[in-house]
């Protein structure tokens, strides 16, 4: 699957406005624009290399956390939590969760459980990427200096 520049731009806009929706300010919006575009571009590149979706989501979470923490370090962003949440929302498996609930309600329990497990593993992948960057960052630098 290949992502044209317009899709990368759309992902950047999505991340920026979701950051505003979650309470970020204009500076957080700009940082999320950059992160959103980088996440979509990197996922496009990794899909060309036939990397599995679990690892792509780990990398996406790591990119969001690393750039958000770097922006806090250079005082470009003000709310690292809002930046990260707005940026990783494009990775969250909303359609998979919806289909899991729909299949379960329709009585197809095996398909519902399978889709729910897939959504759960995707959420774990995002958390692994983000959490690993946070652990390394705080172990190395001891926190965020503002």
TrEMBL record:
Localization of this protein: Cell membrane
Domain Threonine/serine exporter-like N-terminal intervals: 6-136
Keyword annotations: Cell membrane, Membrane, Transmembrane, Transmembrane helix
Residue ranges crossing the lipid bilayer per the database entry: 6-39, 51-72, 119-138
Family: Belongs to the ThrE exporter (TC 2.A.79) family.
Protein origin, superkingdom: Bacteria
Protein name per the record: Threonine/serine exporter-like N-terminal domain-containing protein
Molecular function per GO: transmembrane transporter activity
Topology within the bilayer: Multi-pass membrane protein
GO cellular component, one term: plasma membrane
């Amino acid at each position: 699957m290949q992502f044209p520049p317009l899709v990368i731009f759309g992902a950047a806009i999505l991340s920026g406005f979701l950051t505003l929706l979650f309470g970020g300010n204009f500076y957080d919006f700009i940082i999320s624009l950059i992160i959103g575009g980088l996440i979509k571009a990197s996922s496009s590149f990794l899909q060309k290399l036939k990397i599995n979706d679990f690892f792509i989501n780990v990398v996406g979470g790591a990119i969001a956390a690393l750039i958000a923490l770097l922006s806090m370090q250079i005082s470009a962003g003000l709310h690292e939590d809002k930046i990260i949440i707005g940026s990783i929302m494009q990775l969250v498996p909303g359609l998979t969760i919806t289909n899991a609930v729909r299949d379960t309600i329709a009585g197809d329990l095996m398909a519902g459980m399978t889709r729910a497990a897939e959504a759960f593993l995707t959420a774990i992948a995002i958390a692994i990427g983000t959490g690993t960057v946070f652990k390394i960052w705080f172990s190395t630098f001891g926190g965020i200096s503002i």
